[in-house]
Design brief:
The complex is a heterodimer of chains A (469) and B (243). Among the domains of chain A are: 250 residues, NagB/RpiA/CoA transferase-like (Rossmann fold, 3-Layer(aba) Sandwich); 73 residues, no CATH class. Helix content of chain A is 52%, strand content 11%. Chain A contains 22 helices and twelve strands. In chain A, the strands form three sheets. In chain A, strands 1-10-7-4-2-3 form a six-stranded parallel sheet, sandwiched between helices. In chain A, helix 3 crosses helix 12, helix 9 packs across helix 10 and helix 16 packs parallel to helix 18. The longest helix of chain A is centred in the N-terminal third of the chain and has 22 residues. The model of chain A has no long low-confidence stretch (mean pLDDT 95). By secondary structure, chain B is α/β, with parallel strands linked by helices. Chain B folds into two domains: 117 residues; 109 residues, AF0625-like (Rossmann fold, 3-Layer(aba) Sandwich), CATH 3.40.50.10700. Chain B is 51% helix and 13% strand. In chain B, the strands form two sheets. In chain B, strands 2-1-3-4 form a four-stranded parallel sheet, with helices on both faces. A four-stranded parallel sheet of chain B has the order 6-5-7-8, with helices on both faces. Chain B is globular and about 50 Å long.
Chain lengths: 469, 243
């Protein structure tokens, strides 16, 4: 996917002015936030389940190499092939190579965010093959010229029913539908023919299970099931961090994932796919491949942001983020938006290409308290800020300002003298209304606010004065 | 009981009356209040902007100034959150200071939490005629567990009615330097908050952090609302809110 994270501020500005998008974003609160809260009441002890989920994910990461090898051994024993993609480009090369080997003409995909990292669909088309996205959201984006997703579980969340109706009428050459049910039926009709005629199916992978060599797929539309049962070649793609040791671990994580994502007790479909079609078996792929993707993950694993790899991609952090709720996913400029995206994007594509992302957070920690695997998101954002500070990737004025402040605040007598003058000037600037309309060097602050003027004397001097009396 | 009062730089510089209100409440609860005269800033601006060294110097200074007290109390969830939940990380490379930070963290309280859970204040000096709505500031709520404490105390103020706003736990958009760096996004978040405050029908919004107060009051006034008062919970409880 093209990287646009350097244009964060402009994109956020545009998106805040987009009335249609703003209306759609409002729905997140009812759709995701309220339903999640409601569904958590079904769990006896959500906090204990969160703690268990965190422990499972952390255990997998702490010995990731070992679990990956166990996974490979078990997957191969069941007739699958495991491929290791070091870079995003490797993903595309592997897929095209597999397609050539099996004479594939048409590929169907269910949702895979990892394949967005490598722009797999565009690479498949460039190689002269056909690719069809089958997740409804992803399908909508595909037929709109590969518009980027704006949310990891609701990729077309920014689109309205009306926009989709126009798009369907234009692309399918059918009369324009107006009801959501009709639109879904139309998409289903179109996609069914693709399922039946495709030679290769590519799903993502919510979890890879080491003990069985299986991939677990969590969906609501059933498209992953069709994608992985009808075509003869099956290629599951996901990041290396998605491994979990056992099926029992999956059971625990599945108590957390759908509830945190959509507020469902369980998603409509959960597929666990293990190995190729056996003798006498009716379902399953003839050829099964796993592409396990690094693309920056092993570097994160060995660094101070490691905990971010616990992520199970539920989207709760973005759903609850006041910044995301107001600027939408496209502002972040790459595959993963919101708080987790603000950590993963700089980590995977380079911090110098995403300078705003670690900074554009209020540190309110709403993300941290909803994360089902307890990723301390604000703490990780702060670590990225430290890297930016150390590598001089922030404006010199900011650096100077911070240093000057801590220098002054470490010298009480000087601080006292300087602040006495400062507050008097600011109080004078406030005038009779005691509001400062415009503050030099504080443009971002007074562009949208009237700064309440200081009282004019510091607490310290008033308190000292009282003590003397 | 010797309570070290951490004024916070914002209260010191912008609205000292909050500090005096807090001291009045602490003394009403029977505490002997000590205000270390050399105190300045807790180090949070540097810490949240990536200047770990600057933050560590100020953290060590706060520890030296307050560790002899029985408690450290501040009228801010943000600054007490910094001291209680982040000093351990700020000072992680200095084993001796780390231990002293942990000792200070254990006796650090946000004002309303201290009044309710330690001093067990049964009456408050303040009076208020009208309806207020309470904004839960992020660090107070999510780092210090401050939720019921201010409401319990406000319920003791004669004449005061509480009308909760929707999304009272959602960030007002201040975020320290965030408000300067991303003024437009910050303003949008503040706008949402102002709307919820207006919808609550309250005469005043009450909260426990001056940073959020400046943000919310600043946006309310720019939007042309000169009526809704923005008060620190200490001012309401002590009965020293201006006007």
């Amino acid at each position: 996917m093209q990287i646009a994270s350097m244009h964060f501020k402009e994109r956020a500005h545009d998106n805040m002015g987009n009335a249609q998008l703003q209306g759609n974003l409002q729905k997140i609160k009812g759709k995701f936030v309220a339903k999640r809260r409601e569904s958590l009441t079904e769990l006896d002890d959500f906090e204990a389940t969160r703690e268990a989920g965190k422990a499972i994910r952390q255990r997998a990461l702490d010995n990731l190499d070992v679990w990956l090898e166990i996974f490979e051994k078990n997957a191969v024993a069941r007739g699958a092939t495991v491929l290791w993609a070091e870079t995003p480009a490797d993903i595309n090369a592997y897929v095209l190579d597999i397609a050539r080997r099996h004479g594939v003409k048409k590929i169907i995909k269910s949702k895979s965010m990892v394949s967005e990292e490598s722009a797999l669909d565009e690479a498949i088309e460039a190689a002269g093959l056909q690719v069809v996205e089958t997740d409804l959201g992803e399908y909508i984006l595909q037929i709109n010229d590969y518009e980027p997703p704006s949310h990891i579980i609701g990729p077309a969340l920014h689109k309205s029913k009306e926009e989709v109706a126009d798009l369907f009428a234009k692309t399918h050459g059918t009369p324009r539908k107006t009801e959501i049910g009709e639109l879904c039926l139309e998409a289903r009709g179109v996609l069914r023919t693709h399922y039946l005629t495709a030679d290769m199916g590519i799903p993502g992978g919510n979890f890879f299970v080491a003990e069985t060599g299986s991939v677990v797929l969590v969906t609501n539309e059933g498209n992953a099931t069709l994608t992985t049962t009808l075509p003869k070649v099956h290629v599951a793609i996901s990041g290396i961090e998605k491994i979990v040791p056992t099926l029992e671990d999956v059971a625990t994580l599945m108590r957390l994932l759908p509830r945190s994502a959509t507020g469902q007790s369980i998603s409509n479909y959960v597929d666990i796919l293990t190995g190729i079609k056996g003798e006498g078996e009716f379902h399953g792929a003839e050829h099964m491949y796993f592409i396990l993707v690094d693309a920056g993950r092993s570097a994160v694993l060995s660094g101070e942001l490691k905990e971010a790899l616990r992520c199970i991609r539920c989207g709760a952090c973005m759903n609850h983020c006041p910044v995301y709720q107001n600027i939408g996913g496209h502002s972040y400029g790459w595959v993963y938006p919101g708080p987790i995206g603000s950590i993963l994007t700089p980590s995977y594509i380079g911090i110098e290409k995403a300078l705003d992302l670690p900074q554009a957070a209020t540190m309110c920690n709403q993300c941290g308290v909803v994360c089902p695997v307890k990723i301390p998101l604000p703490d990780l954002l702060r670590k990225l800020r430290e890297q930016q500070f150390e590598r001089h990737l922030r404006p010199w004025t900011e650096r100077f300002g911070l240093r000057a402040w801590s220098w002054l605040a470490s010298r009480p007598a000087l601080y006292s003298a300087a602040t006495r003058i400062g507050v008097r000037i600011l109080a004078w600037m406030g005038g009779r209304e005691r509001l400062i309309r415009s503050l030099p060097f504080g443009g971002g602050w007074t562009d949208g606010r009237d700064m309440p003027a200081p009282a004019g004397k510091t607490f310290r001097e008033l308190y000292a004065g009282k003590a003397r009396r | 009981m010797r309570v070290g009062f951490f004024v916070t730089c914002l209260i010191d510089l912008v609205r000292p009356s909050i500090g005096f209100a807090a001291i009045k409440l602490l003394e009403a609860g029977g505490a002997e209040v000590f205000v270390p005269p050399t105190q300045t800033c807790c180090g949070q601006p540097g810490y949240n902007s990536g200047d770990r060294a600057g933050a560590a110097a100020l953290a060590a200074k706060v520890i030296r100034e307050f560790e002899d007290c029985d408690y450290l109390v501040a009228a801010s969830g943000s600054c007490t959150g910094m001291i209680k939940t982040h000093y351990a990380d700020v000072l992680r490379d200095d084993p001796v200071m780390l231990q002293r930070a942990a000792a200070l963290a254990a006796k650090t309280h946000e004002l309303t939490d201290f009044l309710v859970n330690v001093l067990k204040l049964s009456q408050v000096p303040g009076r208020f005629t009208g309806t207020v709505t309470y904004h839960d500031s992020c660090a107070g709520l999510r780092e210090m567990g401050v939720k019921q404490q201010p409401r319990t105390l406000l319920a003791k103020v004669p004449g005061l009615k509480i009308s909760e706003m929707t999304e009272c736990e959602t960030c007002c958009g201040f975020g320290g330097t965030f408000a300067l760096k991303y003024g437009e996004i910050s303003t949008r978040l503040a706008d949402n908050k102002c709307q919820h405050i207006a919808n609550s029908g309250a005469d005043a919004v009450v909260l426990g952090d001056l940073g959020c107060i400046l943000n919310i009051e600043g946006r309310l006034r720019r939007r042309g609302d000169s009526k809704t008062r923005v008060l620190h919970v200490a001012e309401v409880l002590a009965g020293t809110g201006k006007e």
